[in-house]
Amino acid sequence: MTATSYAAESGSARTQVAVAGAVGTVQNPAATEPKAVEVRSVSKSFKDHQPVLRDVSLAIERGEMVALIGASGSGKSTLIRTIAGLITIDAGAGSIHVQGAPMQIGGRITASAQAQRAKIGVVFQQFNLVPRLSVLTNACLGRLGQMPTWRGVTGRFLHEEKQRAMHALDRVGIADHALKRGSELSGGQQQRAAIARTLVQGAEILIADEPIASLDPSSARRVMEILAHLNRNHGITVLVSLHQVEYALGYCPRTIALRQGQVVYDGISSALTPAFLSELYGAEGESLFLPGLEPGTTTPQRTRNFAAAIVQGSGAADRPAFAAHA
C-alpha cells in the first residue's frame, strides 16, 4: 500500500494517518469509553457445519461510519445479524458487546440483549414496511419495543409518538409522503422510511445490510447521504454492508473487508483501489466496483477529502490497517 500508511500507538488515544502525502494526528476522545460494537473471536456455522464466519474480531468506536464489504457469500449479512442479536454465534467461544454490555457470549443471547437491541436500528435491503399502513404509522412502529403491547397491536400511538415520527420522516426528506401507504412509495423512499423508523426507535447504532442493493444510482446516493448525515450531524454510529466499493470510498472513512468469513482488511477506505482489491479477492474484486472506475486508479480529491475527514476525527480508531488470514 504505497498510497497509504496506518500506524496506531499501542494503548494511546492518538492515531497517526498518512494518506497520499498528507499526515495528521487524530485525537480519539472515545478511546477510554466502551466501543459501540466489539466482536471477539466470533465464528458461525449453520446446519451443514460449513463455517460462514471464522474467528472474526473487530471493534467500532462510537460515532464511526464503517463500510463492510465482500463478495457474495463472504459472511457480511451473517455478521450483521449476529451483531444485532438476530442469530446466535457458535457455542463455546466468542462474544459480541454493544456499548460495553454483552449481547451474546459463547452461543447464548444474554439477559441484557433486549436492552441492547433497543439501541440498535437495523435496516435491510427489503425495506420491511407494512404496505397497507401509512408511512407515518410505519415510522411509528419503531416504538413497538418501548410501549405497551396492547397499544402496539391496536396501532394506538400517542400524539408525542406521531410527532416524533413526523420529525424522523422530515430528517430523511419524506415528511410530505407521511399519509401515503407504504406500497405507494418508490424503493428509495421506502428505504428512507425504514431509516426513519430506526430514528423513532431512538437507535444509537444503525446497522444497514446492503440497503442500496436494489436501488437505482440516484436513490442509492440519497440513502447513503442520509446515513452519512445522521452519522456526521447526530453522532449515530453506522455500520453499512455494501456490495460495491465505490460507495464505501465515497461515504465511509473506514472499511472492513470479509473474504470467506474472515477479516482480510480493516483500515482507511481510500486504500481500496481496484488493484488492491484484486490482490485480496482475485477475480471477485471486479464485481465489487461500479462500472467506469479504471483499474489501479484512485481519485486524488477523494483521497484528500478522506485525509481531512480522518484528521478531523471522523472514523478514528486504534485498529490494524491490514490483517491477512490466508
Describe the structure.
With 326 residues, the chain is an alpha/beta fold. It has a domain at 4-119 and 204-311: Rossmann fold (3-Layer(aba) Sandwich), CATH 3.40.50.300. 30% of the residues lie in helices and 25% in strands. It contains ten helices and 14 strands. The chain has a six-stranded mixed β-sheet, sandwiched between helices. Helix 5 (159-171) crosses helix 6 (187-201) and helix 6 packs parallel to helix 7. It is globular, with a radius of gyration of 20 Å. The chain starts with a strand and ends in a 15-residue tail after the last helix. Residues 1-27 and 292-326 have low confidence and may be disordered.
Radius of gyration, in Å, reads 20 Å
Let me know the number of strands: 14
Question: Would you state the CATH class of the domain at 4-119 and 204-311?
Answer: Alpha Beta
Quote the average pLDDT. 79
What is the quaternary state of this protein?
single chain
Q: Quote the distance from N terminus to C terminus.
A: 18 Å
Structural class: alpha/beta
Main pleated-sheet profile? 6 strands, mixed
Sum up the overall morphology in one term: globular
Individual helix count: 10
Strand content: 15-25%
Question: How is the CATH topology of the domain at 4-119 and 204-311 named?
Answer: Rossmann fold
Strand order within the widest sheet?
10-11-12-6-13-14
CATH architecture of the domain at 4-119 and 204-311: 3-Layer(aba) Sandwich
Outline the low-pLDDT stretches.
1-27, 292-326
The H-and-E topology, N to C, reads as: EEEEEEHEEEHEHHHHEHEHEEHH
Helix content: 25-40%
